[in-house]
């Protein structure tokens, strides 16, 4: 990561210890990562024409029945599908009833 050389000033704290309302440069207001290294590397390496060629190839493979290609395209277009919690919490219990008639 490059150092911009900018000195980040800490927020101003008054003598009573309460935070002063205002801009705090340390906060990440977007909630996501500040940098996306893979995206940045791909943007440096690929031209728009190459990105179009890759996208067409992904769609072509999905059309031929490749589930993984279809999932990749669908996740990019519509976002990943949320998994239901009920499925992950299913438990199978086997019950054996013993009688004294053995």
Could you explain how this protein is built, in words?
By secondary structure, the protein is mainly α. The chain has a domain at 47-81. It contains four helices and no strands. The model has no long low-confidence stretch (mean pLDDT 76).
Number of helices: 4
Average pLDDT rating: 76
Global Rg? 27 Å
**Series of H and E elements:** HHHH
Layout: helices, strands, pairs:
Layout: H1 37-45, H2 48-63, H3 67-78, H4 85-88
Helix pairs in contact: 2-3
Quick structural overview:
The chain has a domain of 35 residues.
Keywords:
102 residues, single chain, 4 helices, mainly alpha, flat
């Amino acid at each position: 990561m490059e150092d911009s050389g900018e000195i980040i000033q800490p927020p101003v704290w008054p003598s009573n210890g309460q935070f002063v309302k205002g801009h705090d440069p340390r906060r990440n207001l977007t909630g996501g990562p500040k940098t996306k290294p893979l995206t940045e590397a791909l943007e440096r390496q690929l031209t728009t024409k190459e990105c179009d060629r890759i996208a067409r190839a992904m769609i072509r493979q999905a059309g031929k029945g490749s589930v993984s290609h279809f999932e990749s395209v669908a996740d990019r277009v519509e976002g990943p599908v949320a998994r239901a919690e009920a499925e992950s919490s299913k438990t199978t219990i086997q019950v054996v009833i013993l009688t004294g008639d053995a």
